[in-house]
Amino acid sequence: MSAGRLRFVAARLVQVLPVLTALLLIVVLLQQLMPGDPARVMAGPRATVEQVAQVRRDLGLDQPIFLQFWAYLTNLAEGDLGRSNRTGIPISAIVGDRAGATLWLMAGGLIVSTALAAPAALLMALRPRSVAARICARSLTILVNCPPFWIGLMLASVLALRTGWLPVGGFGETFGERLRSMVLPSLTIGLAAMPLLARSAAGSLRQVLAADHVTTARSLGITGWPLVRRHLLRNAMPPAVTLLSVQAAALLFGAVVVEQTFGLPGLGAELVSAAGQRDFPVVQALTLIFGCGIILINLLADLSVALLDPRTTWR
Amino acid sequence: MTLLAVDELRVSVRRRGTELTVLDGVSFAVGAGQCLGIVGESGCGKSLTLRATMGLLPPGATRTGGDIRVGRSGLAMVFQDSHASLDPTMRVGTFLADVVRRRRGGTRAAARRQAAELLAAVGVPDPDLRLRAYPHELSGGTRQRVSIALALATDPRVLLCDEPTTALDVTLQAEILRLLDTARAERGLGVVLVSHDVAVIRQVADVVAVMYAGQIVEAGPAADVLDRPQHPYTRALIGAVPSLDGPVGPFRPIPGAPPDPAVYTPACRFLPRCGHGDAACRGPVPGVHALDLRHRSSCVQHSTHHKERT
């Protein structure tokens, strides 16, 4: 790897630190910002003022903010995310229990959206005047205006309720059951994310198609699939990967909705119920995890762009 | 032996819903070991002529007429901007070996070896090292040599060069021109070289075609066209180049600008910028081709000018 690329990777890794610090700060401040007093919620509706004050002291909420921040950090360093207000279960156990469904969903959504967007983009870029490409472009326009939960409901009613082929909800126990139960949620997320991805990929493919170096390749007799594979894809990929990473953030929050729609016991569903019941530690921990997920996805995207484009350097 | 003959080439471009004929009646031929230089100012259709010949017209442009005969020979093209015309994500050696293998077959290792030989042949020092480089890691001159090596890898009989030295400084320009000349002599290549630079054309061309507003206005052996120009445009073009050994005088640019393709007519298109016009210039002017070595010009006034000068 060239010096420019190494410098880019190093600088990009260093850049994660301030973002991570900001995320942690926001997560700790979240208690202050969210409506409701966590101590009062924990102590219960009939607690006296003294009892609430006692709980506040126990939680360390009477401490200055930077001490709270420090306490949160030291706990975090030990892998302690705190305990749920409602059940008293350690949050790390909740996360371990629930992360599976969300990861399945993200992976499924990613596979579906890429598998659908790639051929659509190639079709629209390489044969823009064909009937198929026009139909494809129109369908994308319609699809981009469909909210995910609606797509989910439609898919469930058409593919599951009418035919009974697939479960409408739940997460199953065995690997096979899980695979089946992930089909509809993955399709939902994939279909919601796919139109933007397909359009942007088609756009960058068209741009590369018009580039001088593609004309050179053609003048050397390279046409058809070899041209696409050797010269188009790699050049068109960086913008698509970047957009995919931006979309991954949207996907993660889309997962909140989709998990609710299909009754999946994932992190998103947990976040919704925790927020509804003022379970502050859980909300905090999940916000932190989602934030880290997004930071990680963006980092991976930038690093893969650096891998794809040899000209990458830190500017 | 004629390797490439282009006959009555016509190219149209769609602009705001109307078809504009931007190239009209362009005819030329190149023989083995011959270099045809096409000279003219920006926008006269030189590059488009090459693109059309190569069958690589940009989107929006279509060939609406004419005949392109390429013997059993292949065409290859060298482009102006070597920075933009090489795939930035591909190592030079990978690309070159790819092209070699497509053309000649054989194993990867053999293609790689031939790629190194090609690089050495176009004067790239340390070819094995350069094969591993990406285009952006190379200097402009080396990149243009790589472009030429790529073109030569397809074993063409005719090389089309679109302003191959415009992006380079004068020293490199001379080197690249010498390289093209060597390739022509050693391989018996036909070369079509397009440039706006009369000096470049003078250096390498045997036959010169002068283009103006989508047509050839004068053609013939290089010495005749450049030293005894017949068309006022050719004279003005040559006169606009400051001479290094002549007396120092003011620049003599050509007044005005070339016409827009929307107002192309069968009359002389240079008339508005020409000092010598009369009624005869408003009628259709004869077409000029560069299919043989006769010196021709489309100027209907030519005979009278000729008299004035002698």
From TrEMBL, chain A:
Swiss-Prot/TrEMBL keywords: Cell membrane, Membrane, Transmembrane, Transmembrane helix, Transport
Subcellular locations according to the entry: Cell membrane
SUPFAM superfamilies referenced in this protein's UniProt entry, alphabetically: MetI-like (SSF161098)
Membrane-spanning parts: 12-34, 103-126, 138-161, 181-198, 240-262, 282-308
One protein family per Pfam: BPD_transp_1
Entry superkingdom: Bacteria
Topology of this chain in the membrane: Multi-pass membrane protein
Secretion signal span: none
Example of a GO cellular component annotation carried by this entry: plasma membrane
Coiled coil region boundaries: none
Family listed: Belongs to the binding-protein-dependent transport system permease family.
Name recorded for this polypeptide: ABC transmembrane type-1 domain-containing protein
Species annotation: Spongiactinospora gelatinilytica
Organism lineage string: Bacteria, Bacillati, Actinomycetota, Actinomycetes, Streptosporangiales
Automatic annotation (TrEMBL), chain B:
Pfam family, one: ABC_tran
Domain ABC transporter: 4-238
Compartment(s): Cell membrane
Alphabetically ordered keywords of this record: ATP-binding, Cell membrane, Membrane, Nucleotide-binding, Transport
SMART domains per UniProt: AAA
Cellular component GO terms, alphabetical: plasma membrane
Gene Ontology molecular functions: ATP binding; ATP hydrolysis activity
InterPro entries: AAA+_ATPase, ABC_Ni/Peptide_Import, ABC_transporter-like_ATP-bd, Oligopep_ABC_C, P-loop_NTPase
Protein name as annotated: ABC transporter ATP-binding protein
Lineage: Bacteria, Bacillati, Actinomycetota, Actinomycetes, Streptosporangiales
